[in-house]
Amino acid sequence: MRASRRIATLNAGGSDGWGIFLRAREMERQGRAVLDLTIGDHDRVTPRVLLDEMHRSAVDGHTGYASVPGTPALRSAIAARVAARTGVATGSDNVLVTAGGQAALFASFMGVLDPGDTALFIDPYYATYPGTIRAASGVPHAVAARPSAGFQPQVRDLETAPDARALLINTPNNPTGVVYAEATMRGLAEFAEGRDMWLIADEVYDGQVWTGAHLSMRSVAPERTLLIGSLSKSHVMTGSRLGWVAGPAEMIGYLADLAVNTTYGVPGFIQDAAQLAVTGGAEIEAELVQTYRRRREACLRTLAGHGSIGVVPSAGAMYLMLDVRATGLSGEAFALRLLDERGIAVMPGESFGQAAAGHLRVALTRPEAALNAAMAQIAEFAEELRDAA
């Protein structure tokens, strides 16, 4: 007996990009001290007020089947949040609640792709993107956003790509931290309109913007955009698995049919906590933003003046991307040696595609003192490697 080709080829026979992360976890199990800066999970638990609301809701009986598209109250709250952030009128029928942003991505590609359709996505990219497209029986095609262009995607590069049914973009971007400029967003929207493509906009970091401003693709092209949102990064709810898709009502209806046949919705007590987060969690979100802003600024101060390592201009998201090409090593080789020799785990840029080769992604998910020490060690290690080259 064999597995389906769809499931057996999710990673196209290659790595899923998480090798360093898994190696670091194994080292920890063996008793070695490792500072893990690989994964974008917070170094704190979900706020007590939200956990208390989950508990209250569960004890009060919201433990049975919940409304599959999302509870009316939560859909309405998310719709109001999306409308406020995009300037586009949004109602409950424009929102589907999903089991996290990843489930929202999968649902969106299932909604827009027929088997064999091509979907474009920007490299560097979050590691699950190509596998998610394959899971929906699509053909993933990466289009590079080059370091020389500040990792801003260029329409001229998209114009040489094959015909496609959808274009996936992610801003603020994971892994680079780059926020796509207004001109970039409008250029991508015009490109998609010219080719009659869907736009799938992963904007889960829309509240984490350090410089400049975030422009939602729903603000630019609402009729062809499926907007992905989540409470994982904004309200420390990564394990709660609460996300959404916002888009045209007809498509949301189809995606609700998909939910009936896959997840069958999200637990009601989690949805009730999510409703509280959306309607009354502004202080939680603001405090988290300030935490990551302080950490980013502290890391930049520590790295200033180290010529052996460059910093990609990070305008958003909870990461820094470091350029280590001056050492002569690939990002993967540097990350492996850094882990083995210094006990610091970071993600190599190659985990996110080839456009970020020779780079590292550092998650700002530890206290400032630990991050500053790690940055100093990374810079020192890079200088040693450069001098030895």
From TrEMBL:
Instruction: Specify the enzyme's EC class, one word.
Output: transferase
Q: Which family does it belong to?
A: Belongs to the class-I pyridoxal-phosphate-dependent aminotransferase family.
| Catalytic activity line of the entry | L-aspartate + 2-oxoglutarate = oxaloacetate + L-glutamate
Q: Name one Pfam family in it.
A: Aminotran_1_2
Q: What does the entry give for GO biological process?
A: amino acid metabolic process
Q: Which residues form the Aminotransferase class I/classII large domain?
A: 34-376
Stored PANTHER family: ASPARTATE AMINOTRANSFERASE
Could you list this entry's UniProt keywords, alphabetically sorted: Aminotransferase, Pyridoxal phosphate, Transferase
Cofactor(s) needed: pyridoxal 5'-phosphate
Q: What does UniProt give as the signal peptide span?
A: none
- Return the SUPFAM superfamilies for the record: PLP-dependent transferases
Any one GO molecular-function label of the UniProt entry? pyridoxal phosphate binding
Q: What is this protein called?
A: Aminotransferase
Output the lineage of the source organism.
Bacteria, Pseudomonadati, Pseudomonadota, Alphaproteobacteria, Rhodobacterales
Q: Which InterPro entries match?
A: Aminotransferase_I/II_large, AspAT/PAT-like, NHTrfase_class1_PyrdxlP-BS, PyrdxlP-dep_Trfase, PyrdxlP-dep_Trfase_major
- Keyword Transferase, does the record have it? yes
